[in-house]
């Protein structure tokens, strides 16, 4: 939010009037200080100027965007999703609006 301090945000999203025939397959992918970020690995390696092949692979592995569990509830035709986004973080939710 413009003009507000950068802090961790706890977010709830409600999607209404979703056709329901089962449990939705909600997925979350994040980029922040802890997810899809090679910097902590690079720092833990001593910030090498010329990393080895093994160190490069470790950093590549740490930079992968992976699916994460996400908390949500289903109430009739509404899905409520709760998540936490760190400062300068990005979250991508995928929610099927008609699920089987």
Strand-helix topology:
Blueprint: E1 9-15, E2 19-20, E3 27-31, H1 39-44, H2 53-62, E4 67-68, E5 71-75, E6 78-85, E7 90-94, E8 98-99
Parallel strand pairs: 2-8
Antiparallel strand pairs: 1-6, 3-4, 3-7, 5-6
Structure description:
- This protein is of the alpha+beta class.
- The protein has a domain at 9-34 and 65-99: Immunoglobulin-like, CATH 2.60.40.
- The protein has 2 helices and 8 strands.
- 3% of the residues are buried.
Keywords:
100 residues; alpha+beta; Immunoglobulin-like; three-stranded antiparallel β-sheet; 2 helices; 8 strands
Q: What would CATH call the architecture of the domain at 9-34 and 65-99? A: Sandwich
Overall residue-averaged pLDDT value: 88
Count of DSSP strands: 8
The main β sheet shows up as:
3 strands, antiparallel
Radius of gyration: 18 Å
CATH fold field value of the domain at 9-34 and 65-99 = Immunoglobulin-like
Oligomeric assembly: single chain
Structure described in brief:
The chain is α+β, with helices and mostly antiparallel strands and 100 residues long. The protein is built from 2 helices and 8 strands, in the order E-E-E-H-H-E-E-E-E-E. Helices cover 16% and strands 36% of the residues.
């Amino acid at each position: 939010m413009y003009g507000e301090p950068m802090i961790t945000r706890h977010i709830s999203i409600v999607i209404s009037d979703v056709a329901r025939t089962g449990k939705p397959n909600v997925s979350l992918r994040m980029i922040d200080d802890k997810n899809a970020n090679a910097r902590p690995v690079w720092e833990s390696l001593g910030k090498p100027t010329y990393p080895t092949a093994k160190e490069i692979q470790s950093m590549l592995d740490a930079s992968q965007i992976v699916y994460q569990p996400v908390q949500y509830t289903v109430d009739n035709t509404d899905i409520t999703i709760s998540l936490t986004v760190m400062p300068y973080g990005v979250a991508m939710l995928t929610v099927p609006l008609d699920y089987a």
